[in-house]
Amino acid sequence: QVQLVESGGGLVQAGGSLRLSCTASGTTFSDYTLGWYRQAPGKRREWVAHVTGGGAIDYADSVKGRFIISKDSENTVILQMTRTKPEDTAVYYCWLPYTIGQEWWGQGTQVTVSS
Fold first, then answer.
1. Which of 31, 44, 80, 81 qualifies as a cystine partner to 53, CB 3.0-4.6 A?
2. 67 contacts 80 by C-beta, under 8 angstroms
């Protein structure tokens, strides 16, 4: 089975930085997209960013210019969060769109940005 495990969440004051990491196991990931979603209380889960197996990167407009996603290895994806805002507060989930009808998710890591 594929497993995704996030780490690096925590409390940060607005304007500060956090580095989230997701490590995947259970298969070979070089050909797959890895990315991040987030979900704030009372809101729907929101796509944040992803990097494809070929290295293409895209970001949600809400984080563009502030967050950087990278794939440090074939099984590790990083979300470097800078210039954080209170509206970034959410549970952040690692995401692997494995195939049609099957997506894999991490357990989530809480990020809280204080004002």
1. 31
2. yes
Is the confidence at residue 99, as pLDDT, over 90?
no
Which tokens is 91 given? 């549970």
Which two tokens mark 62?
Answer: 């809400």
Rounded Cα distance between 45 and 14, Å, is: 22
| CA distances for 114 relative to 13, 54, 87, 100, 111, angstroms | 5, 36, 9, 38, 10
- Residues with Cβ < 8 Å from 81, sequence gap 6 or more? 12, 17, 18, 19, 20, 63, 66, 67, 88, 111
Q: Is residue 108 within 8 Å of residue 22, measured between CB atoms?
A: no
Residue type, 26: G
Distance of CA 40 to the CA centre of its chain: 14
Single-letter amino acid code for the residue at 57: I
pLDDT digits (tens, 9 = 90+) for 82-92: 999 999 999 99
Question: Which amino acid does the sequence have at 95?
Answer: W
